[in-house]
């Protein structure tokens, strides 16, 4: 028997006859499904959650809560505030009233873009930044937050044990076409040896930690589903937002990126500006003449979190060979996630997590993906695009 919601057949798994087992007997031989009011979302969810196969689903808060020695109470609290901020951003990017909400929020914070061109902060980025900052602040667990949207890191509290780095809303220039966007974040320990320094200095130096010092990193993808993917240093796990309960539910525990993929992801309109090595690599794999004898396919959304998420799940490479993406806010957190899933993050020559940042907004060529694909790419002489004409789109 199938049931339908909004005309879709079986949008959630149909429970077995006699389901749910604990209350099935009440129906004296008649399947309870026939007697339940399936138009009630709460009932449907409760029934499905109680069905075999759903018992193991843990929420993010259960995952980071007591019993997860790797996380600890203070980090769990910080993560709970960040995930709440991301739910607010998810609601904002999907809202039909987005423009009005943003206009109001911009008026409230008194913000006005001071830059022009591609790098100018867009109102949505500014609002997303405010949302993250306010949650990080109210967690009471952050000493400093450095954001791609701010010129300098913001010192929050001398007592905060953690440092947060973030790109609050990547890909937002595509938002009007409803293309997926994402939030990226990384968390470091505050460095107590810097406590004696003036505020600006310790804010800066705490935020310039090498990626191999990350204690956690994650992203939230705002797409057909809202997915929060996180690592605390042993495994990468993804949680899907259940809009009925408002909880992130563990759907992809211990993600392992395939050792090889068959997809490369790059803006290949830039082909003629690429160095010879990168052109050769792409020409080789798209013809199926690389180490893996299959013809690779191209996928490019032009939204880093979405391109990265697909790569994590299907394997292959997501890359931007020019000095465009930022080491602190994007490359390090995503490299931490891909390494913890068995993949690799590279600037074409070096492991990203071993690069010592010297500037907060430092940019680099970025290659993320399956171990064997990135190794093969690195074997080509020159894959970093040094010539970087200011592209308009
Ligand atoms: O123009 P390119 O080189 O394809 O760069 C696209 C990349 O830039 C981004 O839009 C980020 O750039 P911004 O920080 O300027 O928004 C990514 O989401 C995307 O992967």
Automatic annotation (TrEMBL):
It catalyses: beta-D-fructose 1,6-bisphosphate + H2O = beta-D-fructose 6-phosphate + phosphate. Pfam families: FBPase (PF00316), FBPase_C (PF18913). Keywords: Carbohydrate metabolism, Hydrolase. One of its GO terms (biological process) is fructose metabolic process. It is an enzyme of class 3 (hydrolase). The keyword Hydrolase applies. The keyword Cell division does not apply. CDD domains: FBPase (cd00354). Residues 70-253 form the Fructose-1-6-bisphosphatase class I N-terminal domain. One of its GO terms (molecular function) is fructose 1,6-bisphosphate 1-phosphatase activity. Residues 257-380 form the Fructose-1-6-bisphosphatase class 1 C-terminal domain. InterPro entries: FBPase_C_dom, FBPase_class-1, FBPase_N, FBPtase. Coiled coil: none annotated. GO terms for cellular component: cytosol. Belongs to the FBPase class 1 family. PANTHER family: FRUCTOSE-1,6-BISPHOSPHATASE-RELATED, FRUCTOSE-BISPHOSPHATASE. This is fructose-bisphosphatase. It comes from Dioscorea cayennensis subsp. rotundata. The lineage of its organism: Eukaryota, Viridiplantae, Streptophyta, Embryophyta, Tracheophyta. The gene is LOC120283495.
């Amino acid at each position: 028997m199938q049931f339908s919601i909004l005309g879709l057949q079986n949008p959630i798994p149909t429970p077995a006859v006699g389901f749910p087992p604990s209350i099935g007997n009440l129906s004296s031989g008649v399947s309870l499904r026939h007697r339940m009011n399936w138009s009630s979302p709460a009932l449907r969810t409760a029934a499905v959650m109680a069905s075999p196969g759903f018992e193991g689903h843990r929420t993010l808060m259960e995952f980071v809560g007591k019993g997860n020695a790797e996380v600890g109470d203070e980090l769990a609290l910080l993560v709970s505030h960040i995930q709440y901020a991301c739910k607010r951003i998810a609601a904002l990017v999907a809202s039909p009233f987005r423009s009005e909400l943003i206009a109001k929020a911009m008026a409230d914070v008194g913000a006005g873009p001071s830059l022009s061109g591609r790098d100018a902060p867009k109102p949505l980025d500014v609002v997303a930044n405010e949302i993250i900052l306010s949650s990080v602040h109210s967690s009471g667990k952050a000493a400093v937050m450095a954001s791609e949207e701010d010129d300098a890191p913001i010192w929050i509290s001398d007592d905060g044990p953690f440092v947060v780095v973030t790109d609050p809303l990547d890909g937002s220039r595509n938002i009007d076409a409803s293309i997926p966007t994402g939030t990226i974040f990384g968390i470091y320990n505050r460095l107590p040896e810097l406590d004696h320094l003036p505020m600006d200095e310790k804010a800066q130096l705490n935020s310039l930690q090498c990626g191999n010092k990350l204690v956690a990193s994650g992203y939230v993808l705002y797409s057909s589903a809202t997915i929060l993917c996180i690592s605390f240093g042993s495994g990468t796990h993804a949680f899907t937002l259940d809009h009925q309960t408002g909880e992130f539910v563990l759907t992809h525990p211990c993600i392992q990126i395939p050792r090889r993929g068959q997809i490369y992801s790059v803006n290949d309109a830039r082909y003629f500006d690429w160095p010879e090595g990168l052109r050769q690599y792409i020409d080789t794999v798209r013809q199926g003449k690389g180490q893996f004898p299959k013809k690779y396919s191209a996928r490019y959304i032009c939204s880093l979190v979405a391109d990265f998420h697909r790569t994590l799940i299907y394997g292959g490479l997501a890359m931007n060979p020019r000095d465009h993406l930022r080491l602190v806010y994007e490359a390090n957190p995503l490299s931490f996630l891909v390494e913890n899933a068995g993949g690799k993050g590279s600037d074409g020559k070096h492991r990203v997590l071993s690069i010592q940042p010297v500037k907060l907004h430092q940019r680099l060529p970025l290659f993320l993906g399956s171990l064997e694909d990135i190794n093969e790419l690195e074997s080509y002489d020159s894959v970093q695009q040094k010539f970087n004409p200011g592209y308009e789109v």
